[in-house]
Design a protein that fits this description.
This protein is of the alpha+beta class and 92 residues long. It is 29% helix and 30% strand.
Length: 92
């Protein structure tokens, strides 16, 4: 499976997890922005970068950390590993 297909599969998995938890999810067009998914909850917003079996680069991580968001918005990196069901979630 190529990297793009693997990433798309991880994004869909993340979306299913979030929607099951009651969030409404929006996907960034082409996943070219800082975040792949934005999950809207009743009291919070989660901005999520999804990775399929790899880590964020130093440049990506710095961009995410420097972004200023309101108090009820979390910035997260979700990493899905091969053959592991649940993602590793890192809040920045």
């Amino acid at each position: 499976m190529d990297g793009k297909a693997k990433g798309t599969r991880a994004e869909h998995k993340a979306r299913r997890i979030l929607e099951a938890a009651g969030y409404t999810c929006l996907k960034a067009g082409g996943s070219l922005g800082l975040f792949d998914l934005v999950a809207l909850g009743s009291t919070d917003v989660r901005c999520i970068q999804v990775k399929a079996n790899k880590y964020c680069s130093a440049v990506e991580r710095e961009q995410l950390q420097l972004l200023v968001v309101p108090a009820n918005v979390s910035k997260e990196i979700w990493r899905f590993r091969d053959r592991v069901r649940d993602p590793l979630i890192e809040r920045l």
